[in-house]
Request: fold
Amino acid sequence: MGSSIMDPTGQTTRAEGALQPAIRPESLKGMTVGLLDNGKQNAGRFVEELGKVLVERYGVGRVVLRKKPVATVDAPAQLLDDLHHAAELVVIGVGDCGSCSAAAIADGIALERLGTPTAVVCTESFTATADAMAVIRGAAGYRHATVAHPMAGLPFEKVRARAEGVADEVASLLTGATVRRGAA
Reply:
């Protein structure tokens, strides 16, 4: 008897077909990056700091911040459409529990399907959940960035340090290239 993967976001929607990732830019220089705060504790602070690092280190032109109303379910289609039109690239963070990690991956895949290159950040404790959601949504192997667990409850200095530490990986996910500090 086989096992099945349950969608922890409570959705019954299955994959729309294999994911064709959005076309990545060669560089982040001058790009507008959308930051999606999933509403978890420190997520807003984390994506804001990550946005600052992307501007400082990679020459991102501008960042726009949006916040999900509920971390544990897919973002409303209108919010994703807004991000798709407001930004050339999107960073989603931070998956710090089972259902919010799954929802963050689902949001990233939805944005990719709209044609927006997206990098999702989850804590290392929920990598399996993130990978399982990618399979459910027809994107087996969808890559995401990871930071140490937990994110919630950390003081500002540690949130900033995690943003600085994951910026190269996020830049690589957004450009599809191996990025060395300051090279994107």
Notes: The mean pLDDT is 91. Residues 32-175 form a domain with the Rossmann fold fold (CATH 3.40.50.10350).
